[in-house]
Amino acid sequence: MEHALDLKLPPDDATPDEVLAWAEADGVDLSMLRERLRMSPTERLRRHEGALAMMLAFRNAKIKGAIHASNRETADRIGPS
User: Fold this and answer.
1) How far apart are alpha carbons 20 and 25 in whole angstroms?
2) Would you give the distance in Å from CA 23 to the centre of its chain?
3) What is the pLDDT of residues 24-40, one digit of tens each?
C-alpha cells in the first residue's frame, strides 16, 4: 500500500554526485541550493536573519490585526456610545 509520504530514496551506497543526479532526475530543483552554497556562511546567516525579521513582523501584524478585529467585534456588540 502506497502512502502520500512514501519516499523514493537513492541507494545507500550512492556517491554525493549520484544522489544529486538522482534528485534532479526525480524533479528536484537544485538551483537554489547551489545558489545558497555559493554564499559564505556569514552571507547565508544575514539572509536568514532578514527573513526571520520579516516573518516576525508579519506575525506581529497578524496579532495586532486579530486584536483590532476582536475590539471591533466587541464594539459592535456593545453598540454606539
Assistant:
1) 9
2) 20
3) 998 889 998 899 999 99
